[in-house]
Amino acid sequence: MPTHPPADEDAAIEVFKVLSNPVRLRIMRWLRDPEGEFAEYEPIADRREHGVCVTHIQAKSGLAQSTVSAYMAALESAGLVTAQRIGKYTHYRRDEERIAKLVGDLRDVI
After folding, report:
1. What is the per-residue pLDDT for 4?
2. What is the pLDDT of residues 41-89, one digit of tens each?
3. Mapped to the 3 state alphabet, what secondary structure does the chain carry?
């Protein structure tokens, strides 16, 4: 048995760690349907193209801005979301291509 896990296994472990937090998992579900989940917030940019403004994620979650920023950084580091700066705001959206690859990699890992 190898002493170091393969890269796919490391990526899977990181994703599981990030998604083990119920709020981060909830945010991922919200980002699956940004128009529906964030309908009550006036979009700053097109949500399908650019994602959801971090201020809207913060408002919906009810958490402190610093906590939401840390959660989004963890999701981005795990490759689950992409960030785009528009003006003074950061917008996040799911990286569906990367998520599909991670799901495929999981088949090889487990």
Report:
1. 47
2. 998 888 988 999 999 999 999 999 999 999 999 999 999 999 999 999 9
3. CCCCCCHHHHHHHHHHHHHCCHHHHHHHHHHHCHHHHCCCCCCCCCHHHHCEEHHHHHHHHCCCHHHHHHHHHHHHHCCCEEEEEECCEEEEEECHHHHHHHHHHHHHHC
**Among the listed residues 50, 95, 51, the one whose alpha carbon sits nearest the alpha carbon of residue 76:** 95
Contact 5, 13 (CB under 8 A): yes
**pLDDT of 22-40, one tens digit each?**
999 999 999 999 999 999 9
Domains, the chain, with CATH or none? 7-109 (1.10.10.10)
